[in-house]
Amino acid sequence: MTSPVADRRPNLTSSSDFLLLELSEVRELRILHFFLFLALYLTAMIGNLLIVTVVVLDHHLHTPMYFFLMNLALMDMCTISVIIPKSMANSLMNSRTISYSGCVAQMFFLFFFGGSDFALLTIMAHDRYVAICNPLQYEAIMNKGACTQLVILSWICGAINAIIHTSGTFTMTFCSHVVDQFFCGVPELMRLSCDDLYLVEVGLLVFSCSVVSGCFVFIITTYVLIFSAVLRMPSAQGRQKALSTCIPHLTVVSVFVLTGLFAYTKPPSNISSVLDLGFAVIYTTSPSLLNPFIYSMRNKEIRTALWKLFHQRHFPNIIPSLL
Asked: Three-class SS of residue 83?
């Protein structure tokens, strides 16, 4: 007796378009989704762009910590751009489709920027450790060349992460091309697998989670040492300054890890698609959306640089600083 899975398999080709989750059949609700996503997207882009701008324009921020923060903001802008614009376009045009190559590209860049993001967050923890626990050798250790190499390393880690998971996912045969999400995610695509190759991607996800857990343990251990050093500082002002650079980073790491764990360890459920969609929006947009606000609210130097940017009256003076 032929199984239903076997009956469906010949009807699908590797080049078939995927059908993403339909946000709504009601035009007014689709328009509402469009403007909601547009607001989230513009807020994240403007917030991160402001971080990049103030770091570039303010020479007081030309330090390793803010160099890493600028690259983090760039990664966040890229990450949110992988998913949200396509979903906005589908809502506006009443479409559900994404091409096979588009789905591959979406997953690749999601893992690429996400992996690079977390690698950079790990590097930033090391930077704070050297700055606070070994300040006399900070400039020698975190010199310009070393910082550039570390950022390049984070991009390389992201690329390896993307290649592994994208190839592992798209070697599977899909029994259906109807994705139960508004973007191409690994858990949703694994549920469409016709064969046991999805176990390969499960193994890759377990391996990645182990690496991320190791990095997270490294970050936590680093901050235990940092806080121990901070508590030994005789000056209350020194302690406050040190914490003002550490707390935002630790908060960003927590947001990134918690949303990632929710995305990839959440078991399948029968909750309403509206609630599931809401959770998906949160874990795909919150890191990019919250990071600039976390840093601007907790970091005095960033707040000062933003104030100077908005109150700069002599715009010709800005031009030479860019050259």
From this structure: helix
CA 117 to chain centre: 6
Look at residues 218, 296, 225 and name the one whose alpha carbon lies nearest to residue 253.
Answer: 218
212: tokens are: 């991320």
Q: 175 Cβ partners below 8 Å, 6+ apart?
A: 5, 8, 9, 12, 192, 193, 194
The CA distance from 86 to 102, in Å, is 10
- The 10s digit of each residue's pLDDT in 10-44 is 444 445 788 888 777 788 888 888 998 999 999 99
Specify the DSSP class assigned to residue 171: T
pLDDT digits (tens, 9 = 90+) for 37-52: 999 999 999 999 999 9
What is d(CA 219, CA 224) in angstroms, rounded to the nearest whole number? 9
Task: Compute the distance between CA of residue 130 and CA of residue 135 in angstroms, rounded to an integer.
Answer: 6
Residue type, 158: G
| Four-point Cα dihedral 78, 83, 85, 91, nearest 10 | -170
**Does pLDDT of 273 surpass 80?**
no
